[in-house]
Specification:
alpha/beta, TIM Barrel, six-stranded parallel beta sheet, three-stranded mixed beta sheet, 44% helix, Glyco_hydro_1, glycosidase, beta-glucosidase activity, GH, Myrosinase 1
């Protein structure tokens, strides 16, 4: 094999999971209720087959077997997420679960004993239900609560965990507030989703700055955020569709990436302009997209040691309007589609488009 087609010696290969998707033990010991527990127990018909994560893969009890499977495959890293409500049952930092902390200590120790580097995600969509009852991610106070939660985690596990991810796929988190895609399944499109974007970015930055100023020197770890994006290619070879493809990616990935990774910070210019314009057209006295203070822009800018990226599939984009009015989709002014020739995975939305990943990178 050509050397150009081999991974370098320091290339890290691993696998990932999410606490609600694998742990089970939804009420084990003194774990608190999270938004997925609440949704699946109070509105079971919202989920196909009335499924839930009460048991899931039972990783809460079978973590040793899970680690052995990871080792047998040959992975050298494992990215798992910490269940906020397992370690802080009420969501607040004044009630800490000893049993919850012990579980993650056992998991981390098992990983390290088998030569597998732990990568810990602080948030993978499972907000404690008591915090959701305060408004969840549309409430600006959530950024402060997240920072307090992060402090407990850094203090407890930072001597063992050297790779941290603050939030996994914030784009999907806001889908629970605007489109009703996920828990808490709210349908306040074009308003609540932007409020959640704003709070999530501030929460991420607060956790990053806390680690950077208080824990990095002694723990010597790295911390960042993981975004997700589909590559968008113009459906037609026209200026309008090429611009629509870029615009769609700005509303999907750039809305989070630009405030963190760009030199100037803040939201992408096209996102700000379109949401402001549409808000004014709708007769609103202020934009549906909140505004950062200059201090917040500076705090968010540069708040990641790496660019975490998840990629699943790609789409074609053409200029046009789709979705409710108002909505993030409609603000983007892009209509997405698939090539019928693309193979479909088990999930109908998941099209196999290998070239899209290269193009995205």
């Amino acid at each position: 094999m050509s050397s150009s087609h081999t991974f370098p010696p320091n290339f890290l290969i691993g696998c990932a999971s999410a606490s609600y998707q694998v742990e089970g033990g939804w009420n084990a010991d003194d774990k608190g209720e999270n938004i997925w527990d609440h949704l699946t127990h109070t509105q079971p018909d919202k989920i196909k087959n009335r499924d839930n994560g009460d048991v899931a893969c039972d990783s809460y009890n079978k973590y040793r077997e899970d680690v052995q499977l990871i080792k047998d495959i040959g992975f050298n890293h494992y990215r798992f997420s910490i269940s906020w409500s397992r370690v802080l049952p009420t969501g607040y930092d004044n009630v800490v679960s000893k049993a919850g902390l012990c579980y993650y200590h056992r998991l981390i120790d098992q990983l390290k004993a088998n030569g597998i580097e732990p990568v810990a995600t602080l948030y993978h969509w499972d907000l404690p239900q008591p915090l959701q009852e305060l408004g969840g991610w549309v409430n600006p106070l959530m950024a402060d609560y997240f920072q307090k939660y992060a402090r407990v985690m850094f203090k407890e596990f930072g001597d063992k965990v050297k790779w941290w991810i603050t939030i996994n796929e914030p784009l999907e988190v806001i889908g629970g507030y605007g489109e009703g895609k996920y828990a808490p399944m709210l349908y306040q499109h074009g308003v609540a989703d932007y409020l959640a974007v704003h709070t999530l970015l501030k929460a991420h930055a607060k956790a990053y700055r806390l680690y950077d100023t208080t824990f990095r020197a002694s723990q010597k770890g790295r911390i960042g955020i993981t975004l997700n994006a589909a590559f968008k290619r113009a459906l037609n070879n026209t200026t309008e569709d090429k611009v629509a493809a870029v615009r769609s990616m700005e509303f999907e990935c750039g809305i989070f990436a630009h405030p963190i990774f760009s030199r100037e910070g803040d939201y992408p210019k096209i996102v700000r302009e379109r949401v402001d314009y549409n808000s004014k057209r709708e007769g609103r006295s202020s934009s549906r997209l909140p505004t950062f203070t200059q201090e917040e822009i500076e705090e968010i800018k540069g708040s990641s040691d790496f660019f975490g990226l998840n990629h699943y599939t790609s789409r074609y984009a053409t200029s046009g309007l789709v979705g409710p009015d108002p909505s993030l989709d409609r603000d983007s002014g892009s209509v997405l589609s698939c090539d019928p020739a693309w193979k479909t995975a088990k999930s109908l939305w998941l099209k196999v488009v290998p070239w899209g990943f290269r193009a995205l990178l």
